[in-house]
Amino acid sequence: MDITGRRLIVKALQEEGVETVFAYPGGMVTDILDELYKTDAIDLVLPRHEQGLIHEAEGYAKSSGRVGVCIVTSGPGATNIMTGLADAHYDSIPLVCITGQVPLGLIGNDAFQEVDIVGMTRSITKYGVTVQSRKDLGRILKMAFHIARTGRPGPVLVDIPKDIQTSPGPDEYPASVSIRGYKPNESVHIGQLKKGYKLLKTAKRPLFLLGGGIHISGANTRMQELVERTKIPVVTTIMGKGALPTDHPYYIGNSGMHGKYAANIAVSQCDVLFSIGTRFNDRITGDLNEFAPKAKIVHVDIDTASISRNVVVDVPIVADAGLAIEKLLEWAEPKKTEKWMAQIAEWDKENPLEMRRNKGMTPQMIMEGINEAFEEGIILTDVGQHQMWAAQYIELNEKKQYITSGGLGTMGFGFPAAVGAKIANPGKPVICITGDGGFQMNIQEMATSMVQEAPVIVCLLNNYYLGMVRQMQQLWYGKRYEATCLRKRKGCPRDCKGPNENCPPYTPDFVKLAESYGAKGIRVSREEDIAPALEAAKAGNVTTVIEFMIATEEIVLPMVKGGNPMSEMILSK
Asked: For 126, what's the count of Cα atoms within 13 Å in the CB-facing half-sphere?
């Protein structure tokens, strides 16, 4: 029996078990939305901007393990999701994004709201295609979901012309699909893994470096068992934070540009670095010539292209992290690492991760308040100084999940992603840690949070500045705070060196803005008010913005200047 393309699209979503779709209307997707109107099986979320929409789909996917689904119209609707596609691509988040397109006969004629979205996004999607024939629609949609969720997950874009949506064609939706040239690795090369494990066995200063691949493969529990059997210490990337509980005796901390002193020194001094599920980007390695200079490096990753791309490794292993860890558990034996652990503890004692406590409220105090207030939940961050403070001080265990924008570092990610996570997990507390700059980038999604009855607790750290760039200006640009002060007005002096008594008020008033959406707003300026504010937010079943007023001069330490060795850390102002 023949059915329209739009009916087949909805059938495909149902066959794939899709329960939630994030969609924004427009002329080239009205037929799809009209078909969705006819079913109660799929919940349609209407965000307030397409960039907010795709970040919500990311938060939904990342927190639930399901594929996030987006529908946007052609032209500006499609181009508005490009940042989110890139973000999902770098952080391996499975998305299927359906874009409307002008009818086939108009493609290439500069029709109204026509763009070559597949061409534009080719480098930031796992797969992208414009459907050219109605008979291919079902197979292409099946391919999209298969590619998005298998291997290294990622975003897939399916561009569907309007006439394909309305044309009749086969009603079959395939149960499976075979794709020539796409064969995700589903095994472990035992010979290579044995080579890597042999290095671990003979090492005197072994170290695990764990990335986001641990979370993606769901290997956290098995990884903890491997660590406890081998007694080998662990450092993580920001995306790998939580791979081991942060209070675990063998967990040192995050490594990298804002990593813990002991973690970075351990990387520079280890003799075997066994890395699992990380891409070795520049925020982790710094100067490539000085990265883990004394170590043999083993690299386990599901993506062949990620191995030896940045850091040339001694033992490459293409494998899913979970499968590799399962096999390592069969061989695992305890190592004598007491001296190595004692040395790491000494480094930690020399330069502990700690902010001053004698001059009012600090970001560390806020993070400690969040740790105390929430025994479980999903914690998301935006991008900036607050992200690094969260990575340093937030405590994680099996009851807490940590989500952030790692590879692309997308300001504006945090709050909409938190809304998406809450929609996927209505029974869990969802906490968004953000800054005054990043929050404003997608602040319109406050409306989405309210109308979807998806309450999020927003912990907004306000220092009046775009803090991460301001920090660089303070350290290396002679305190020339160009384009970073968010209070600056046209009448302000051009050579301002920082806050003073003549500064104008901040725009907007976040408390009043929250209230204008029907949300709750709380402003906190003192340490003793942190806990009561968090408890008030927990008690109310409504989105709450807690604005924490922090000092402008607070900077994230340790810090490594871009391109320098990770052992060359700035430890104090």
From this structure: 28
Residue 471 appears among annotated catalytic residues: no
Is 112 an annotated catalytic residue?
Answer: yes
Q: Of how many residues is the chain composed? A: 573
Token pair 């309450």: residue: 455
Taking phi over 0 as left and psi of -120 to 50 as alpha, with beta for the rest, 195 belongs to alpha
In the block, tokens 């690795």 appear at: 185
The two structure tokens encoding residue 37: 């109107």
Q: Which residue in 14, 113, 364, 444 is the catalytic one?
A: 113
Cβ proximity of 355 and 364 under 8 Å: yes
**Is 50 considered catalytic here?**
yes
Asked if residue 547 lies in contact with residue 509, where contact means CB atoms within 8 angstroms, the answer is no
162 is catalytic: yes
The CA-CA-CA angle for residues 179, 180, 184, to 5°, reads: 70
Q: Give the pLDDT of the chain (573 residues) as one tens digit per residue.
A: 899 999 999 999 999 999 999 999 999 999 999 999 999 999 999 999 999 999 999 999 999 999 999 999 999 999 999 999 999 999 999 999 999 999 999 999 999 999 999 999 999 999 999 999 999 999 999 999 999 999 999 999 999 999 999 999 999 999 999 999 898 888 899 999 999 999 999 999 999 999 999 999 999 999 999 999 999 999 999 999 999 999 999 999 999 999 999 999 999 999 999 999 999 999 999 999 899 999 999 999 998 888 888 899 999 999 999 999 999 999 999 999 999 999 999 999 999 999 988 888 999 999 999 999 999 999 999 999 999 999 999 999 999 999 999 999 999 999 999 999 999 999 999 999 999 999 999 999 999 999 999 999 999 999 999 999 999 999 999 999 999 999 999 999 988 888 888 899 999 999 999 999 999 999 999 999 999 999 999 998 999 999 999 999 999 999 999 899 999 999 987
Active site residue 387: no
Write 525-531 long-range contacts (CB < 8 A, 24+): 525/361, 525/549, 526/360, 526/361, 527/360, 527/361, 527/365, 530/361, 530/365, 530/366, 530/369, 531/369, 531/372, 531/373
Cα–Cα distances (Å) from 454 to 378, 448, 519, in that order, read 13, 8, 11
Residue of 62, 126, 162, 422 marked active site = 162
201: tokens are 């066995």
Pairing of strands 457-462, 430-435: parallel
